[in-house]
Design brief:
Oligomer: single chain
Number of strands: 17
Shape: globular
Number of helices: 7
Largest sheet: 7 strands, antiparallel
Low-confidence stretches: 1-44, 179-197
Mean pLDDT: 81
Strand content: 35-45%
Helix content: 10-25%
Distance between the termini: 119 Å
Order of helices and strands: HEEEEEEEEEEEEHHHEEEEHHEH
Structural class: alpha+beta
Radius of gyration: 32 Å
Strand order of the largest sheet: 3-4-5-6-7-8-9
Length: 372
């Protein structure tokens, strides 16, 4: 009996020890020498386009670009295509003579005629736009349909390829976009064929041109220089930060000019930014548009070469001291002193465009670009 009892106690003890061993913690595993680095969600460091050994970061043109897709020569330009999301791309129009980007387009299916980028058309979701952002056609697409291609048939007709997730074969739709104007009809051709009583979004207001205000020669060059620094394509942040803003127009008033050491002409100007709000809702009567506006002015220097091309643009920065004003004015120290004097303001030798008020400047813009 005692032997049996001892055997039974030993068996129970072994079972208890086995159970305790199963629950005891094990030694922690040694960490890997090179732990994996998490990369998901990190921003792309840059999307670089290179021309003549100079790098251009496309993300500085459009922060949503995440890959360089294609570079296509078109006349004196290169169309630089960047990927944003499926069915939306970035197209940067790069001028090979000035080696600068002259236009930024966000859309898809960019197409053009005769090696002329100014004939370009592109789609953005269900809408077709021209090179200047003018609406050519708004398509009535179902939720399953999308524009998958654009092709010019001739100067008046554009073929739109429409695909569907429910069909393997795309359909072709031909739209008429207007006649190709003769040179003498250039002014009329620039008018926007938007019917009144429509809300005009900010990206459909054309970037202003010198000829819209009848400017020629030096005045045209100075105005185009101002537009190059202040337009909806270069400064879209104004519109994204204020949903009521519809149109921005620049103006310059010349204080004086002098010749630089390089033989160029530097103009000391009052650079004015004009902001027009709620205008897109107020165009039922082009003679009496409804809007509110404000303007901001600042000292700037516009330098033109002997051909009237922009050589340099410099604007007085926030917080700069009196010496910067003298630097802008160069040898025109009398203008600098008037600017720095309390309540002082030098006489303006020219206002470009030469309109009596910013309201009149707006009216001239509307008369040029919109049909009655």
């Amino acid at each position: 009996m005692n032997l049996i009892k001892r055997s039974w106690l030993l068996a129970v003890l072994c079972l208890l020890l086995a159970a305790c061993g199963a629950d005891s913690p094990t030694a922690p595993a040694a960490p890997p020498e090179n732990p994996p680095v998490e990369t998901a969600g990190e921003p792309v460091s840059g999307v670089i386009f290179t021309y003549n050994d100079k790098d251009y970061d496309l993300q500085e043109r459009n922060s949503m670009v995440n890959a360089l897709m294609e570079e296509t020569p078109v006349g004196g330009t290169i169309v630089v295509e960047g990927h944003i999301v499926p069915n939306v791309a970035y197209y940067g129009i790069f001028d090979t003579e000035t080696e600068t980007f002259i236009k930024d387009i966000e859309g898809a299916n960019l197409t053009w005629r005769d090696d002329d980028i100014s004939t370009a058309a592109y789609s953005l979701w269900s809408e077709i736009y021209d090179y200047d952002g003018g609406l050519l056609k708004k398509l009535d697409l179902s939720d399953s349909e999308y524009v998958s291609g654009l092709t010019w048939k001739d100067s008046q007709h554009l073929t739109v390829e429409i695909s569907s997730i429910n069909s393997e074969s795309p359909e072709a739709l031909e739209i008429t976009v207007g006649e190709e104007p003769a040179l003498s009809e250039k002014r009329a051709s620039k008018k926007r064929y938007l019917g009144l009583h429509e809300i005009v979004p900010w990206h459909q207001f054309p970037v202003p041109e010198a000829e819209a205000f009848g400017l020629t020669g030096k005045d045209a060059s100075l105005y185009e220089a101002a537009v190059s620094q202040f337009n909806r394509e270069k400064t879209p942040e104004y519109f994204t930060s204020d949903g009521d803003l519809d149109l921005i127009l620049p103006s310059v008033s010349v204080f004086g000019k002098y010749t630089t050491d390089e033989g160029n002409t530097a103009y000391v100007v009052n650079f004015v930014r004009c902001f027009f709000y709620d205008l897109g809702y107020g165009l039922d009567d082009l003679d009496n548009p409804v809007y509110t506006h404000e303007s901001i002015n600042n000292l700037a220097s516009i330098t033109l070469d002997h051909n009237g091309n922009l050589a340099a643009f410099d604007e007085l920065g926030d917080g700069e001291d009196d010496s910067a004003v003298y630097r802008f004015c160069g040898p025109l120290t009398d203008i600098a002193e008037k600017l720095l004097a309390p309540g002082g303001w030098p006489e303006e030798s020219a206002r470009i465009p030469d309109t009596g008020s910013y309201e009149e400047m707006l009216q001239q813009y509307l008369d040029y670009y919109f049909e009655r």
